[in-house]
Amino acid sequence: MSNFWSLWIILLTAISIALIVWLLFSNRKITVNKENKTTGHVYDGIEEYDNPLPSWWIKMFVISIVFAIGYLALYPGLGNYPGLLHWTSVGKWEKEVQQAELATESLYQGFMNKDVVALADDKKAMRLGKRIFANNCAICHGVNAEGSYGFPNLTDHDWLYGSEPEQIRMSITQGRNGAMPAWASILGNDGLESMSQYVSNLHTTGTDATSPAGKQFAMLCSACHGPEAKGNPLMGAPNLSDNIWLYGGDVGQIKQSIAAGRAGQMPAHHDKLSEEKIHLLTAYVYQLRQSSDANAK
Known about the structure:
By secondary structure, the chain is mainly α.
């Protein structure tokens, strides 16, 4: 906030308080007509008397004014003035977060003694892991971790960067940056059509290195997706031989991916979550995969 608007707020607040004080005390005593003590207002046979305000009401009003002045002196409320206590909502929130972290530090620390596989079977740990997931991951992957357009489903068996504990931990800690180049200028319109159709059918026909589109796939795409289109976790290249799609699996969506490329990004959480929370979150995401494998069987 600029100094002008800060001073403007301070001035308006001070004038408002001064006017309230003047209004209160200027009406504290009035001259009462001894012959006719009413104001002349009559409603339904009830006359309004012209009496001064009750003393208890005036005292309460004075107390509220004093309280307001004291509050504005101690807390921020006058433009850029921070208040004598230098209180801020951000500071209060940070203090509450620190207190909560201290209270739960020993609890989280106790789970560090278990590896991810064992921790995935600990119901108490998984309840905590689910809360961490809901607070940090659900906004992209969904409350049930089933993903959405452009955000991977974590409950199936298809993993871009691998589903082993250390691979999951690396994804959470360091984040991921997926990049697929655009091929529109190289393939041309006819090439885009044939390649989109070819990739769309991979989950049923498999790769065919003898077809024109198959030869183009081997030349342009196999370096990342593999010669059999099974994907590459080291590069985050998805498996194209199943029927699981991050950006949609119909021919039009596949064509868009090939033509314009894709650039997915998952933020790193090493500076947002403690080591203990990342350990718990890794176990929670790992057990999501275990659950999907169990359901598949």
